[in-house]
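User: These chains co-purify. Model them together.
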Amino acid sequence: MKKILSILLVFALVLTFAACAGTGEENDSNPSESKEQGSNSATTEPANDDGKIRIAEVVASTGSIDDRSFCQGTYEGIKKYADENGISYGYYQSVDDSVAEFVNTIKLAVNGGAEIVIAPGYSWNAAIYEAQSMFPDTAFVIIDGEPNNGTETVCGANTYSIYFAEQQAGYLAGYAAVVDGYRSLGFIGGMAVPAVVRYGYGYIQGIEDAAKDLGLQPGDITLRYHYLGNWDPSPENQTFCTSWYSSGTDCIFFCAGDVTNVGMAAAKQVGPEKAVIGVDVNQGYEDECVLTSAMKGVDTATYSALQEFYAGTFPGGQIVTLDASQGGVGLPLVDETWRFNAFTKEDYDALFEKLASGEIQVPTDTDYETADQIPVTMFTVEIV
Amino acid sequence: MSYAVEMLNITKRFPGIIANNQVTLQVRRGEVHALLGENGAGKSTLMSILFGLYSADEGTIRINEKEVRVTDPNEANALGIGMVHQHFKLIHNFTVLENIILGAESQKYSVLDMKTARKKVVALSEKYHLDVDPDKRITEITVGMQQRVEILKMLYRDNDILIFDEPTAVLLPDEIDELIEIIKNLVAEGKTILFISHKLDEIKRVADRCTVLRRGRVIGTVEVASTSKEEMAEMMVGRKVLLQVDKGESYLGTPSTILEVQDLCVKKRNERKNKVDHVSFRVQAGEIACIAGVDGNGQSELVAAIAGLMPSTGRITLCGEDISHRSVRYRNCHGLSHIPEDRQKQGLVMEYNVAQNLVLQEFQEPQFQRHGLILTGAVNEYADRLIEKYDIRSGQGRETAAGSLSGGNQQKVIIARELERPHELVIAVQPTRGLDVGAIEQIQAQLVKQRNAGKAVLLVSLELEEVMSLSDRIMVLHDGRIVADHLDPKKITMKELGLYMAGVKGGATDV
Amino acid sequence: MSEKSLKSQKKKSTDLYAAIAAALIGLLFGLFVLLVSNPSKAFQGFGALLTGAFSEGISGLGTILYYTTTLALCALSVAFASRTGVFNIGGAGQFILGGAAASYVGVNWTFLPPVLHFLVAVLVSLLAGALWGALIGLLKAFFNISEIVIGILLNYIGVYLANMFVLDYFYDVSMNRSLPVAQSAMVPRLGMDKLFPNTAADAGIFIAVLVAVLIWFIFKRTTFGYQITACGNNPDASRYAGINAKKNIVLAMAISGAISGLAGALFYLSPAKNFIAISDATPAQPMTGICASLLAMGNPIGILFSSLFISYITAGGFNMQLYGFVPEIVDIVTAAIIYCSAFVILINKAIRVLSARFQRKGKEK
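Assistant: Joint model of the three components:
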């Protein structure tokens, strides 16, 4: 019996040594700069040949790179820039959503050769706060958040923080939906986090303004408003969406991560007339039932941040909010996903111009505590 | 003389033991051949090899003079070998007929051909005087009848080598007589019978020849007619054995009632009928009172109620104190010792070692614990003393896990524990079940010693011989009621006792 | 005597061999998964898995110890319950409720001085976990409902209850999680941060070791341990011996729950974490704890080492991302290793059978 054990042991040891030797060689033999990574096909193969990943996205343990939303948008921006310029890129996922693990993940990214680390979401605030001083030679971009340790915000010279005016995107979506003829509307948010609340408030204002502009009567429009308390594409959530659709709601704006996916399924299940409004990225490619998407330019913002970084004009130390005037938010104009009938691209351009110029002001998350406090006259916000 | 079965130089090993060591068994055609041996002598292993349940490591099997390889029971069947197992393999909510044809259904156009099957079963039943009603469900017939169904199963499959594995263990004395009759009929029709038993009486009555096994080896094959019971017992055990218990003088002190049970009823949940039905009796100091009865007539429930393991109504008095509503622990601490029916399930924690098992009730007593900490030294000392005194044999002394002891030594652990703690009453339920003659002798002697020391002993046993030889007084439990209270083992015959147990006779007290 | 001790030693060493063999088989299986998923980088990845935990030197041990704290306590909780014959799969509920209760104290009871604040928070977590565990014990003991069914259901109820509790009493809207725990209630570092700089290491590991030793002692020496082990091994015999099995089951489950609650407290009160995210997912540590407990075959001291091993694999696996293994593959590999390790009982049996066979052959010669 001891023989068997020792054989096993030796076998395992040999493997271990082989493995270690392998890695050592790999690391030492090729210390030179990265090679070009030409082909786009190997997108799931983030490492370059020398094993260094120069542009890194860090993802929370609960996030995923293909969430068809926020993290994905960031990654697409990275991918686009990196492919165009032949720079290696990749992503790292943390083990847990604690600050320590986030810092560990950033550490791993830096050890893996990252020059610039991009973190999507406010949950990275504290980790970036620590990391920016721990790794002064690495650049950090945080999207929808800012370096904050819970008591103070310090945006280091190597950190660039980007926010979006989501309320404007929500406004556009709500306005367009009403103009296009939808009267029974809904809003489903994942949780009442600032970005979601901004989308929701803008959506309400957009509906209100469109109803007024169209000369509708108060009561012509109904709006249901709900935060699910999670971001899961679960059967429970699908049932919830179905119940809304089948009880008369025609168009629902989903700000709840992957819930959009089950929302689409629910819409199709109930009838072809039911519509979905997507969020963050253009989700119109996913399905015919997606009327439009309230987008924020996560990908373009990421892209331009990278552009500036490699041009040597990295806007470190800045905290910016990208709105319509900077093209940070909007609806997708691609013909393939333009599914409005009454609402035209000319209408959109005019509306967008008003937002960009500041002619239209949209309430934001800090203006009201709950959605039903927004002063609307054409309908009541029915909080579920 | 031709042989129906020949098993030549069979060896079978299991991890740690050699179950059969160069065993040779030759059975002549048309004889009743007994296989005698203590538990663990290798009888069942040998038969399982013949029936295809195990394969032998070495040796050859010849059936009707032809060498064969039996790899599963179906092949055994094809060779004409059938077996009545100790635990019947019947489906309870099927009828007798359905059970008999199960696995050997005759078909007509792929539809069950019950008509032909029934004809054959009825014919066989008449031919061998089995008197089986083919349409009764198994649940509706007696254990004796169930055994006949098993026999019919073999006959239906045209088997002519029939193995009976301890067939009398479950039968009443009357039924045993009838079984022996049936076996004789079968032999008369040319069948060959292999009869496994460790009961010398039956072997003497039914068998022509007898092969004795001891510790996996064949001790010899003898002509039954010319060999005495004592000789066979000696071959089986390896030394001279006392077949009768020497009880000595009975206790002569003032008889006082130790246990009194009044109007005791036990009902199981979801059952309408009382399992124990208005039972009253007393047990005196210095006597062995025995509760006889066929298994399942309320003995287990009665004992459980007295020990506090099952809720009951009525009154239980122990040494003058009403303990009806006391906890198990209270009863244990106030004079009750209990040797349980199932030593592995109830009596021992198999994963615990001998020492731990020896203090199963007493670990909370001040001599074995202080402030919730077990005094390992005291426990070990106590254990070593008991191991010595009760001759408990084990591989690693007190450190041996109870599960790795032999059955006899497991029982000795329980007996040591129960008899060493302070007590006035010993309830012993089937204390010798499944043990070999040597261990039985020791345990019975211990119980007699208790009686002679003035303790009350309540013995529950299914073995009539044990009942007859050990007890001072016999009570018979039938269908939850005491049908006889003061039978004197010296005056009553086994046959009479059997009638009480079967519920035929009853109501009478004092024979 | 010498033969006796030799034999019992032999049994113990078989257990140890089996555990080591199980871990090795797990590793080999992990390598196999790597080879299937990406042959060219498999060995690099495997190397990262084995050495990654120490890629930054000895300070990596700090991270491992940090993981070990929670994992070992969860495993101890499972081991304690299984001694009574109850499979505590409800650890997740006890864990999150213990954590939530401790965090509540940690956030709100700032009037307490440091250290005492932490101790009170831990105490409250023990109570919360014990309550949730005892509930399983009660239903099991008095209504004979399967502890597995109750445990799983109570896990969900526990998670939602914790969410509700956080949302109502100490919720940080802007971060969608609980408010941060006050400094005074955090698990003390006791110099672990000096020893293992820049890691999450704190004094929790000492508490875990203490609990392990305590449990070992309870089973080894106390009448209480004797009773619950008897109940677990043979409930009928325990009843026969007058041991109150129901009481013991409830008590053991309460203790098991308390240990899970403690694990939750040390996890959520650690300076590295200090918040509870609102999430519908059940925490993973209690489930991994089941594996750690199996790998150690319920031995409390063994659990410390099995937890250390699993933590080491987890820490190492994280580093595999450096070689381009996507997190999903990393999860599969680490999970495969951990779950393979749980085959330890099977391997133990195999070793015994094999060694018996070898011995016999030797004797026959």
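The first helix of chain B runs from residue 43 to 50.
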